[in-house]
Amino acid sequence: MLDKTGIPDHTPHVLRHTFAHVLAERGESLRTIAKLLGHSNINYRRKYVAPSRKERKAAVNKLAGERYS
């Protein structure tokens, strides 16, 4: 399955996290993601949609670009 997914450790938890993260990257609301995951508490969904290092770097670069352009 690794060859097809590209996910190194494809446990149910990792697949669930990936599902939620991809939805968040594509702009889905946290409320919708929480419903899809079966969560009622906002703290649970936050851990699934935490920004990646690449996303954090892109956010900082956007700010830097606005400041110096």
What are its keywords?
single chain; 69 residues; mainly alpha; 5 helices; 71% helix; 0% strand; flat
Extended strand count: 0
Instruction: Give the termini distance in whole angstroms.
Output: 45 Å
Cα-atom radius of gyration: 15 Å
Share in β-strands: under 5%
Mean pLDDT: 77
Secondary structural class: mainly alpha
Provide the succession of SSEs.
Answer: HHHHH
Query: Can you give the helix content as a percent range?
Result: over 70%
Oligomeric state as shown: single chain
Give the biggest beta sheet. Answer: none
Question: Which consecutive residue ranges, at least 5 long each, have pLDDT under 50?
Answer: none
Sum up the overall morphology in one term.
flat
Task: Tally the helices.
Answer: 5
Describe the structure.
The protein is mainly alpha-helical. The chain is built from 5 helices and no strands. It starts with a helix and ends with a helix. The mean pLDDT is 77.
